[in-house]
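Q: Predict the assembly, please.
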Amino acid sequence: DTGVSQDPRHKITKRGQNVTFRCDPISEHNRLYWYRQTLGQGPEFLTYFQNEAQLEKSRLLSDRFSAERPKGSFSTLEIQRTEQGDSAMYLCASSLGQGALTEAFFGQGTRLTVV
Amino acid sequence: QKEVEQNSGPLSVPEGAIASLNCTYSDRGSQSFFWYRQYSGKSPELIMFIYSNGDKEDGRFTAQLNKASQYVSLLIRDSQPSDSATYLCAVNEGGGSQGNLIFGKGTKLSVKP
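A: Predicted assembly structure:
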């Protein structure tokens, strides 16, 4: 399978715990994005990388969220001290190219439930 | 605040009809425009992209872009029940690295047999 892969697919955690999600992009894609989606809403941008550089991060993103892409391949998204409001689908996407003219493909997402 | 606006629907069309989905965006610097299809509980799937003014056709799908009016649309011809899904319009954020995609809330399409 050469698509974007996310792990785990589902995560249930207790409030206050830390969670980490992994995303493996399409091979050779240099851009990797993280989005969050709640019911009835479109995906909300969190951050994106070009190769290993984190180029943009949403101003809405709490300091509890951090993302890495250490070797320009897979990426991790960590949420510290989870809150019930963090419950959402976390989507990863990847694309090839620079500038604006690049198509992004999504993985199947990680559904987080904070209880 | 840069925004992408879509009619949330639901939009209901009979099987075989043309479904027309519309989207407006606020950022005049945007250069790339995308339509994603999302089935309930699944992740978004890219179905069309358009970078230049005018029409772009791919099978039963036609994307239309009018940058002067900041308007992009998606037409689905010969609609099938399997087209029933939420359709998300996404626009790249102009300025900066231009990599960020801004999504609308989506239009829910229902195709009735």
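The longest strand of chain A covers residues 88-95. Chain A has a mean pLDDT of 93.
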